[in-house]
Amino acid sequence: MQAKKRYFILLSAGSCLVLLFYFGGLQFRASRSHSRRDERSSRDGLHPPGPDRFWPRFPDALRPFFPWEQSESEDSGVHMSPRQKRDANSSIYKGKKCRMESCFDFTLCKKNGFKVYVYPQQKGEKIAESYQNILAAIEGSRFYTSDPSQACLFVLSLDTLDRDQLSPQYVHNLRSKVQSLHLWNNGRNHLIFNLYSGTWPDYTEDVGFDIGQAMLAKASISTENFRPNFDVSIPLFSKDHPRTGGERGFLKFNTIPPLRKYMLVFKGKRYLTGIGSDTRNALYHVHNGEDVLLLTTCKHGKDWQKHKDSRCDRDNAEYEKYDYREMLHNATFCLVPRGRRLGSFRFLEALQAACVPVMLSNGWELPFSEVINWNQAAVIGDERLLLQIPSTIRSIHQDKILALRQQTQFLWEAYFSSVEKIVLTTLEIIQDRIFKHISRNSLIWNKHPGGLFVLPQYSSYLGDFPYYYANLGLKPPSKFTAVIHAVTPLVSQSQPVLKLLVAAAKSQYCAQIIVLWNCDKPLPAKHRWPATTVPVIVIEGESKVMSSRFLPYDNIVTDAVLSLDEDTVLSTTEVDFAFTVWQSFPERIVGYPARSHFWDNSKERWGYTSKWTNDYSMVLTGAAIYHKYYHYLYTHYLPATLKNMVDQLANCEDILMNFLVSAVTKLPPIKVTQKKQYKETMMGQTSRASRWADPDHFAQRQSCMNTFASWFGYMPLIHSQMRLDPVLFKDQVSILRKKYRDIERL
């Protein structure tokens, strides 16, 4: 009996081995024949060499990166439920595994860098104002190119913002319109902006057409559908959101203590049924009518009275008692619950008001979460733990509350206050993915001045920027480079430019002097320049335009730049003192001649004044010290239109530099001690005397102020009443006890 069992087991095992070898052999032969066909095809030229051949071949498991075959969907649709069919045709589920490495062609970005092309607007296509603002922001940026052959990224001119079929902004037949674009290429290297998707009753995240391998810059996107390091989560913003500039945050000062009248507030719609109704229907459990005001109303929609419940009338009455703006400005925390969709307008409103957002929207991928650390600016709650929210926020220490509120203001002004900033942040995030070796780190994105003003192309080392010395434990630079802008020929050894060169060279902090020769006459002979203890480099300007004084010359080896006009009259002591002040404020402009701006109500425009008053907002670069990074920003960040205007007028370059630095730092420049004869002395010189006295010169500067303010979208200049003098300056003590004694003699 035992022998029979052994024979049976051996027979079964043998049969299994035979079957295994048989089917395995078939598969092996099939794969070998397939590889041979591929080899023959490549030898016969059926697959010509190109960029794709250098990219890795992905296994079959990654086939979902590409759209499903039509035959496959038809065959599988026979036994599908209606919901499954809808999901199968939904673009949000196709390419769900897309990542930059698999669905983005990096070769397009290697030749010309990160350039963005916007499709020409098609005739008869309607575009909502919000989408027009997005396209205008791209076209006005330094990334824009009108040549598709130079583009790394493509953006549709077809309006994709509102994909709710019940919306009047909904664009019909978008599927066929997109597929007909000759550059579409299944969405590869394309970016699609979207604020609203899906419609009543389920509000899915389907945008209504096949996005292929395109990236989504989408509001209210869930973590389930968000493709990390491929999509970009953007905030939901209203149609009234400003295109450029935007209002500043409401936290004007460091309010201490940070607590306000109300601890937690919310005012908004309450949905009686459907998606998003659970959380808002439960808010009344937390509302106490004192320091926690969570007000809802069901008075919205056409037939709200048909569906109202027993609480509606009472809620509506209390809802009308409070002004939303007053609540917002007087609350420490603002509840941001989900609505029909995951995102809410309340999010940006809370950020601007310095009201710490308390997020109550499970599964929402927060805006720009790839780079922003939201734990520094918001409280992330859980819809299932609503009743614990009040006790949680009451346990937060006041120091932490103040830090949270300050961070809301930084994030609002850096990334969210305008459509332009939202768009540029989106593009900068994508650029960082493409050029990872120079991408910004978390510190840059989450600390002033933010990622939009810190260009990694300048340097990958934080110590090369003027904003991170304290973070890195570094001391500010100990030397400066003097850059003298010369525009008149050298005809006499007594000219102010030579005296200025000697005075700067005698400074103990001077490393070198660069003379930028923008004069039409030939360069003077080498022996015409005075002998100095520091190197003197003369650079002949090629274009000889005003903006050339702010080019990022490789010859500037120090971080600090002392910018000088040729007719400036400064002593060595004044130079030394200004530099020591700058070392304490390396991110600002520090200097001598000050000017101011004002709003002219009669003309409804900005005005420029050189009168000696009790405040100022500009320090002219004719005698000022600043970080050389601003040369790079001036050259690569500002648009060509503004720089061309400066060059055509041969004027206003100093005003534009002040606009730029104040926009970056959100701080005024610093004026240091100045002799009273400084202005008269300059007016007495020959080269610029006619310019300063010319009324057209002054009128041009008035015009420049308004043109610059228009481009920035707001007035970045900030008034200051602070002037820094040496200790013991003008004090009734012996002159021998004073360090900068020569300043008082001038």
From TrEMBL:
- A single GO CC term, please? synapse
GO biological process terms held by the UniProt record: antigen processing and presentation; axon guidance; basement membrane organization; blood vessel remodeling; BMP signaling pathway; bone resorption; bone trabecula morphogenesis; canonical Wnt signaling pathway
Q: Which UniProt keywords apply?
A: Disulfide bond, Endoplasmic reticulum, Glycoprotein, Glycosyltransferase, Manganese, Membrane, Metal-binding, Signal-anchor, Transferase, Transmembrane, Transmembrane helix
Its pathway? Answer: Protein modification; protein glycosylation
- Point to the regions of Basic and acidic residues compositional bias: 36-46
Identify the Pfam families for this entry. Exostosin_GT47 (PF03016), Glyco_transf_64 (PF09258)
Tell me which residues make up the Exostosin GT47 domain.
111-395
Q: Boundaries of each Glycosyl transferase domain copy?
A: 480-729
Subcellular compartments: Endoplasmic reticulum membrane; Golgi apparatus, cis-Golgi network membrane
Q: Does the keyword Transmembrane helix apply?
A: yes
State the EC number(s).
2.4.1.225
Query: Which InterPro entries does the annotation name?
Result: Exostosin, Exostosin_GT47, GT64_dom, Nucleotide-diphossugar_trans
Q: What is its main location?
A: endoplasmic reticulum
Q: What does this protein do?
A: Glycosyltransferase forming with EXT2 the heterodimeric heparan sulfate polymerase which catalyzes the elongation of the heparan sulfate glycan backbone. Glycan backbone extension consists in the alternating transfer of (1->4)-beta-D-GlcA and (1->4)-alpha-D-GlcNAc residues from their respective UDP-sugar donors.
Name of this protein: Exostosin-1
Tell me the organism's taxonomic lineage: Eukaryota, Metazoa, Chordata, Craniata, Vertebrata
Per the record, the gene is Ext1
